[in-house]
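subagent[fold] <- orchestrator: predict structure for attached chain, return tokens only, no commentary.
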Amino acid sequence: MDDLSVQIEGDVGVITLNRPKALNALSHKMVDGMREALTRWASDDNVRCVLIEGAGERAFCAGGDIQAIYENGPKDPIGSLEFWRDEYQLNAMIANYKKPYIAMMHGFTMGGGVGVSAHGSHRIVTDGSVISMPEVGIGFLPDVGGTWLLHNAPKGVGAYYGISGARMGPDDALFLNLADAYVPNGKFSTIKGRLIDGEEIDAILADVRETPNEGDARWHQNDIARWFDADNFEQVMANVEADRSEFAQGALKLLKRQCPLSVKSTFYALAQVESYTRVEQSLQLEFRFCAASLKGKNFYEGIRAAIIDKDRNPKWEPATLAEVSDTMIKDMFAPLGDKELVF
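subagent[fold] -> orchestrator:
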């Protein structure tokens, strides 16, 4: 069975991520297949819109196939970097797509799954949707245009979710502008059929969308904004530590768990994105971090601890935030010359 199903149903281009046992994690072949389909459908008058979904009940897409990068990166860093190059070009294609691009974000939607959904024109969440950018926990940073998406969230809130890796429910995703509509489970499954029958997505959503229960992001937005009103991440941590609320102490545990170099690199990257006007600029910045990560230790160590050995005990380098220098951070975003990501 193919890992990616691409077909036209009625006048709807339907993409199904079809690796349910792997939570529909994206492989390089799947990325290439999506790029080919979207390119073809962009100029096909018989395709009115695109719908992307994930097979199985557990996930839309839980991210990229990081185990493959763990296995291949040390011996084939160029090949691994090409996966990100193609994936990021796909993310930009989705962000700029001229036809409605409808993402059915059920279950886990994480990392690379956010990249093939949250850049679309219509992002739909439902009961049980769990959205996150957990990359700092594996020695990486929010990528696939994640820095762009998080920067465009309410003040401080995007930075918090990107740096803590905290999970978002349906209302959180709406508040951070990573989703457009919440549709309860009972109506969620009807959207595809109604699209194929010829209804327009905006009319369907007007009929079936509802208001989810309020999430942490909306409830704690003022606290989070206050924490992140700082010039450096050490001050952010001090602000969180000084807040004795239950939510703050839970956030503190999350923040302390992450890779120090990734944490400060993400804080730096989000500051850079403030001057950007296009998602492509964020993707180019993230791509530089990818190249540096393949040469370092933290990314492989993070995957080992989380996915391979599952001991949840990564040995980060440096081990503390205080040891991360400005030079180390800037080295993670060093120019790549003729290997830069271009569009």
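orchestrator: received. Logging for downstream: The chain has one domain: 4-339. The chain is about 50% helix and 10% strand.
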